Amino acid sequence: MKRGVLGSTLVLLGGLLISVLPASTPLLRFAPLVALRDERAGRMLGLAVVVIGLGLCASAWLRLCREVAGATGPAARQALTRVCTAAVLWSLPLLVAPPLFSRDGWSYAAQGTMVEIGISPYDYGPWVLGGPIVEAVDPVWMYTRTPYGPLPLGLGALAAAHTRDPWLLVIAHRLIALVGLALLAWAVPRLAAWTRADVPLAGAIVLASPLMLANGVAGLHNDLLMIGLMAAALVVAVERSWLWGAALGGAAAAVKLPGGLVCLAIVLVALPAGAGLRARISRAVSVAGVSLGTVVALGLVVGVGVGWVRGLAVPVTFDTVLSPPTVLGNLLDWLVATLLPGPGWGRFGVDALRHLALLATAVILIGLGVRTPTGDRVAALRALAIAMVALVVLSPVVHPWYLLWPLPFAAALALPRGAWHALMAVAVVGGVAAPLDSTLYDAYVAVSLASLLIAAISAALLVTRRARARMERLEDVRHGGGERGAVGAGASFPGRPGKPAV
């Protein structure tokens, strides 16, 4: 526990050197801090401190995974409590941090303020405000409409009604994000119990991994609230009613549009076994109606309507190196320009591959909806995990925090060894590499050195012989005794009292 707390504290301290802060913040009156931030060497030091801190968090997390894996019966409850305690303690130092590795949090603060004073972020960018609230907003987003739904805007407006201090608003938005983490703490153990997976270990992967700490908590992105609502929607649809599940799915879509994909799983679990195509379509229309009604109702309550649809194309105007269609499209454009020089090609390759990827995504989603067995919650969960992975891989824009999208659904499955190791690797590398997405004032040397440091830490955690031995021991514990990693047939944890978990 202590190692993780130390790690997140180092992330907080180093983040003060590499993060963009409002010029008017009192913290910038502290001369030694300003001196370090003004020098490239100081920012490199801050980056190294952050990466080391994330490495400590990763090391503490891997140890936590080994300690809780394979717990059954009452020990499983104790292990899950230990996981939740670690997630809280490791997140606490980051609660007061500025938005790390991204400036989105400052945009959230400005957009919530706009809604509070009656200006729609779907019509104007944060530039209309002026003053301290926009001092740290990324210039890229200063003049653009927001692509986010009405739910985070409404919650941000509630916070802005009590303060206009940008840092306090950032803390408020981080608390909103942590609601998503709390929803995951409630839902993921239930999802894992459906599949007879290792419940405490699934909780550790989702709640306390470096990927979650760096991108969900420190990075302060609406994606954490979105996936929390998605996981809760699926559980509610199974344990209560598909109507309430669809409403929560609409709330997830009202955070970010991909959250609505949980409705695919809700349709599948809301039907009896062996349902035909006509029944699937009918139920899909019903679920979509409830979900869309929730989105529209939230927009009306917040006072912004459905104008956010106009902003959905804003992120696609930028290229990201984690999007396979975009990377391959740029490579294709380069090859065409090299082999067939001449005017008129432009971004033909990028546009073509992006459209093909979107078409492939639609085909995959339709295939999942038509071919996945109905009335089977495990099959529905697996379909949702596949859908979220496909959405990330084929998306025209992929940021590091998009890796959070499939995390709770993949971790709740009883994965084979190879998929298990891949998930662990993504959870470590995706977290430790998060600082490379931050603004470092063109500090290319710092980024290069950080890349080497990240490679060394990742190797120490995942690649060395000792690390492989630790992973194999964890895998043995996870599968030891045949059913050791499962909660057990007929167990009531963690579903409703008296109701079998599987």
From TrEMBL:
Keyword annotations of the record: Glycosyltransferase, Membrane, Transferase, Transmembrane, Transmembrane helix
Spans annotated as Disordered: 480-502
Keyword Transmembrane: yes
Annotated compartments: Membrane
InterPro entries attached to this UniProt entry: MptA/B-like (IPR049829)
Lineage: superkingdom: Bacteria
Membrane topology: Multi-pass membrane protein
Listed transmembrane segments: 46-64, 167-187, 199-217, 224-245, 257-277, 284-309, 352-371, 383-407, 443-463
Record-linked NCBIfam families: MptB
Family that this chain belongs to: Belongs to the MptA/B family.
Stated name of the protein: DUF2029 domain-containing protein
